[in-house]
Design brief:
Blueprint: H1 2-27, H2 35-38, H3 48-71, H4 75-93, H5 102-135
């Protein structure tokens, strides 16, 4: 039962990571997005190493967040903790974003969207847990089945 509830945030994180990596690969190919190439005669070379590095960072962050959410007993709490971690990373990296290349900026967008998604997923998984708890009888309670007296 726990793994089904944990799938809510995990599936969203995988989707966001795939979107962020796709956007990172595409946007990094435009020389106009780089401050140093905007008004320069220097030729543009696609930053393959940096794109691979930042894509790997996004994948690693998504895997760690998914692992934490799947392993911790209380899914909404794990989602909130991971959202706080992503938010703290975003705040720590944000001051360096002014003239950063697109792969750096898209990593910040990933952190923002992942933190926001984890807050939404915490609320959704808490509601699912509440609904499941109301449906199951608590310890010591027995379900009373109706008896048809015509038998």
């Amino acid at each position: 039962m726990k793994l089904r509830v944990a799938m809510i945030p995990i599936v969203g994180l995988v989707g966001l990571a795939a979107w962020a990596i796709h956007a990172l690969v595409v946007r990094s190919g435009h020389p106009g997005n780089y401050y140093r190439y905007r008004h320069s005669d220097v030729g543009f070379v696609y930053p393959t190493d940096s794109v691979i590095t930042w894509s790997a960072v996004i994948v690693i962050e998504a895997v760690i967040a998914g692992f934490v959410v799947a392993r911790v007993k209380h899914t909404p709490g794990a989602c909130v903790v991971m959202a706080l971690c992503f938010g703290a990373a975003l705040m720590a990296m944000l001051p360096l974003a002014m003239h950063a290349p697109p792969y750096y900026g898209l990593h910040l967008v990933w952190l923002l969207f992942a933190a926001g998604w984890l807050v939404v997923a915490a609320i959704a998984s808490a509601l699912v847990n509440l609904a499941l708890r109301r449906r199951r009888p608590s310890v010591g309670e027995h379900r009373v089945e109706s008896v048809d007296e015509r038998d």
